[in-house]
Amino acid sequence: MPVKVNHHLPAVKILASDNIFVMDDKRAEQQEIRVLKILVVNLMPRKMVTETQLLALLSNTPLQINVDFLYMATHQSKNIRQNHLDTFYKSFDEIKDEFYDGMIVTGAPVENLAFEAVDYWQELSTVFDWSRLHVYSTLHICWGAQAGLYARYGIPKHALTQKLWGIYHQTVENPKHVLFRGFDDDFVAPHSRCTTTYASELPHDFEVLSCGERSGLAIAVKKNLREVYSFGHLEYDRMTLDFEYQRDKAIFGENIMPDNYFPNDDSTQKPRMNWASAASLFFSNWLNYAVYQDTPYDLRDLAKYEYFNL
């Protein structure tokens, strides 16, 4: 079912070519149903790629979704034209009086910096504070997960001895949890990071839902599902790690293969795509059980609900 976006967004044409239905704003205006409002805080440098990846996953549900994209006004993007941001994105000042059923905070290639050294850290921290009264459930991804835990609870990230990079097995710790309905006992997911978060440092009202022998803590949630933290990249498409591999080899002269990615560790071969079903199911479960089932019909009532623990 459809995700509603500006009909000129380049990702719409790409998804249509893959037979993925994205409803444009003109058609959506003719429907008389309560759509879900999702805010995507896109911190990734290749914004158009991330837009396409996330919209493909959000569209795989029987729900109509209105998606807004947010950029950091305090950061000068180097990999996207300002015209794209002006046309398809909003600044925090433009959305600060809005309310959303859900929010997605992407990763960002800044994990080797201290959080406070990131040029848009203060702005992002403001978004996290704002979300407590304006967003029902937030899905944090990779560095976005580490940033959320640090901003909200002061939980630090820890440097790894070597980069965690590739496709890794993860276990389902609680098969009965709503976010893992339909999952097998284990699955694989892409990871690409130099830092990690320790499960032992999570607040008492959190639950670890997935971890791996190599990946460590993979997915954790606040028990009321208002906050979901995924430290991998289930949203990655088949060729994302290949792009990162080719980029790093060209820039740094490194030839470090992502683990369990290229067949026979041969970068000339097409990478295996073996996490798509898990990604689709995870995002669908988040939209259904963490967002749709509990969000108040009138989003202005968000601040009135006792279970927000405010």
TrEMBL record:
Positions of the site: Important for substrate specificity? S192
Would the keyword Signal turn up in this protein's UniProt record?
no
> What single Pfam family name could you report for this chain, choosing any that match?
HTS
In this protein, the active site sits at C142 (acyl-thioester intermediate), H233 (proton acceptor), E235
Tell me the SUPFAM superfamilies matching this sequence: Class I glutamine amidotransferase-like
- Catalytic activity, EC: 2.3.1.31
Gene Ontology annotations for the cellular component aspect, listed alphabetically:
cytoplasm
Can you say where in the cell this protein is located? Answer: Cytoplasm
Assigned keywords, A-Z: Acyltransferase, Amino-acid biosynthesis, Cytoplasm, Methionine biosynthesis, Transferase
Q: Which residues make up the binding site for substrate?
A: K163, S192, R247
Which pathway is recorded for this entry?
Amino-acid biosynthesis; L-methionine biosynthesis via de novo pathway; O-acetyl-L-homoserine from L-homoserine: step 1/1
Q: Which GO terms describe its biological process?
A: L-methionine biosynthetic process from homoserine via O-succinyl-L-homoserine and cystathionine
Membrane-spanning residues where? none
Family the entry assigns: Belongs to the MetA family.
State the protein's purpose: Transfers an acetyl group from acetyl-CoA to L-homoserine, forming acetyl-L-homoserine.
Protein name stated in the entry: Homoserine O-acetyltransferase
Q: Which organism is it from?
A: Pseudolactococcus hodotermopsidis
